[in-house]
Hints:
The complex is a heterodimer of chains A (599) and B (271). Chain A is mainly beta. Chain A has one domain: Methanol Dehydrogenase, Chain A. Chain A is built from five helices and 38 strands. Chain B has helices at 3-15, 19-23, 48-60, 75-78, 147-154, 178-185, 195-202, 238-250, 252-261; strands at 29-33, 36-37, 41-42, 64-68, 87-92, 99-114, 134-138, 161-165, 190-194, 209-213, 218-219, 223-224, 226-233. In chain B, strands 1, 4, 5, 6, 7, 8, 9, 10 and 13 form a nine-stranded mixed sheet that branches. A two-stranded antiparallel sheet of chain B has the order 2-3. Helices cover 30% and strands 25% of the residues of chain B. At the A-B interface, helix 1, strand 28 and strand 29 of A face helix 4, strand 5, helix 5, strand 8 and strand 12 of B.
Amino acid sequence: MAAAIGCRRNPESGGGGSTPRGGVSGAPPSTHFVADLPRGEWRMAAGDYGNLRYSTLDAINTTNVRNLRVVTTLTTGIPHGHEGQPLVVDNTMYVVTPFPNNLLAIDLANTGGALKFAYEPHPDRRAVGIACCDIVNRGAQYADGKIVYSLLDATVVAVDAKDGHEVWRTKVGNIDVGETFTAAPLVVKNKVIVGNSGGELGVRGYVAALDLGSGRELWRAYNTGPDADVKIGPAFKAFYRKDQGKDLGVATWPSDQWKLGGSTVWGWISYDPAANLFFYGTGNPGVWNPDMRVGDNKWSCAIMARDADSGELRWAYQIVAHDAWDYDEIMENMLVDMDWNGRPRKLLIHPARTGFVFVLDRDTGEVLSANTYEPTNWATGWDLKTGAPVEDATKRTKYGVVTKGICPSSTGAKDVIPSAFSPRTGLVYIPAHNTCMDYEGVEANYIAGTPYLGASVKMYPGPGGYQGELVAWDPVRGQKTWGVKEEKFPVYSGVLATAGDVVFYGTMDGWFKAVDARSGTELWKFHCGSGIVGNPITYLGPDGKQYVAIYSGIGGWMGAVAFPDVSIDDPNAGLGVVGTMKEIKKYTAPGDVLYVFGF
Amino acid sequence: MSSASSVFLIALLLAGGPERIAAHPSLPLRVCADPNNLPFSNDGREGFENRIAEIVARDLGRPLEYFWMPQRRGFIRNTLKADRCDLVMGVPATSDALQPTRPYYRSTYVFVSRRDRALRVTSFDDPRLGTLVIGVQVTGDDYANPPAAQALASRGIVSNVRGFTVYGDYSRPNPASGLIDAVARGDVDVAVAWGPLAGYFAAREPVPLEIAPVLPDADGGLVRFAFDIAMGVRRGDATLAAAVDRVIARRRAEIRRVLREYGVPLVERAS
Lengths: 599, 271
């Protein structure tokens, strides 16, 4: 199916956002945004700098969404996990495929016709064997006439958006020591900010800034090591005592373990232009067993706030000290100003892998609230005075000790898959998981010619008879307003909220759904050819009509269990996720299709 | 379809699969191996696993073919299970991701130190390990590490431990040699390394090194230091597994000569 989407030029398409920063129709006047919200186009991975994944388009609304139908499809030809989302700029849609990370440019005035171009970067094939969790890519950004994105082999490319020629190409990381790049870059002014993946391989996490014009690396800021490497200077001010002190990136590790300390950056980056700060979360403390890395292991599992020009760290908040559960905290940090106890505050909302939603003051790093959104028992609450969890010591893993019933499991109450926020409802829409795990024992495994001892981690559905849920969370009241439970699988698709009060998300068994933003009532659904682990976007076509696009291609850490070569007989396969995903092969199979819906 | 014809069809399908290889000696024996991981294998065929693969292929009367891929997470999935080969040369004999053959050697983690230091550490209970700088291999798979990491952690020995990833820097010719090089240079006092690579690299350092098996070969019932190593075929490929088992039995002396030539510390299973 390949109907053309009209050919009239869209008069609004020039603006990534023509929306005022406050005063979205239907939202409280006290709600303000850090930057323009997407309207006709979708220029960056999360839609806007605040990572809200909210579109001001309202032509598709709660009454007419039931009439949505497929208007075109595109096959990428690479049936692996299609995380991320396309971009739409100047009536052209840009799709970055999983490895080998081709860039496909689709003329929206001529869908079903020839591509405008297909750029093939041919990254180093060895990256495939190094990436941990399928060969995914989480998206690109448009800036200054270029499409900028990372390749799996730790290279960053800028491609001319008009003709597809490579403007620059910079090898930033080193796959020879285990680094890969999977995250979407964020372009801030003239800088491309990227981060590395590969914490399992002894990589040391960092963010780097490249010059948008030339690709030249301008600076690099590590997440472990001495203050000079972490870019901690006189302007650094952590809110909590536990995060204050000199050279904590060294002092909180035994000897020089920080050199192999993980804390990588494979999630989302957001940016507040007024403060000129960018925010990201760090991954788990790499490579060492928890028993070995005595100490807090900074700055793993932390939220970092850095100056966008210099990379200097302004504040940091470590969510989990001395991680023992693989609770990477690379989740999205959503930026919005709202009334908080009667006065306006600059918020950072972080729905966390740990099972808590954190609301922070993004100027200071103070935790304003932390409440659980899915069954969670490793901690019974959060001490807002110290910034530390109230841990249940019986749920902390220790080598050689069997620990049963830890909730959430290592995949968290959500993973990297991003939430959305609607200023009209004041709700955060979280794609959530409800899984628990048993950690136990020793099994011999073998890598690079060397036998080693692994823990067997078995994951399974959490209490309540469901594995996934779209959670509508009220960040101000700190509680769930409603939830749509998905029985069979965790929700591993991103979420989109729109001014039409429709929330879109997908399921791993292939349903693409629209629900009412206020009630969660299902309004429409369509069964795609393969499970959904990508993020929906919406835009105006050349005909001025609103469209919604989503990738359908099961894969990623949990979704890879759908691949024929992953055996469901082994409960420890896929780092233990088979226990929650063993039914997936009955419902879906690998796919590689972009779907576009409209009227 | 009658049940008799179903059986016939199944037999035909099987004949097109792995069985075909054992039944047709002229077909190549396809081995998946790391192109840059001495002493195990490399694409110059200089590793002991290359040499032993040649013994197996010769015995079976088949030409040897390689599919090269770095041995990282997903190696078995992307090689053996993806039908890019029929045999991998080194897996723990207890592996359940594939069908292991009978083990063809048993080796152990060893302590490595400079001979001129005369340390002669053989046990994790040696009190000197509280102060010596100790180098260990780390794999970094979540929750997983070589046994030395567990043995040291359970004794509270952490601040004087240095980590070396088992992958090393893959752009270099011998990525795994970093830990043994560090002993020779004096950067660490004693290393705990998997025997085959310790034995091979120790013999090639500019200063004499000593290696000594970790004793006893288990620690607290959970942590083991000695492992039986087998070859591996796809699950269900019983014909090839049986054929390779027979080769391992027939060529035992020849295989052990190769292992000794590469300095692999061989231990016998405790009775």
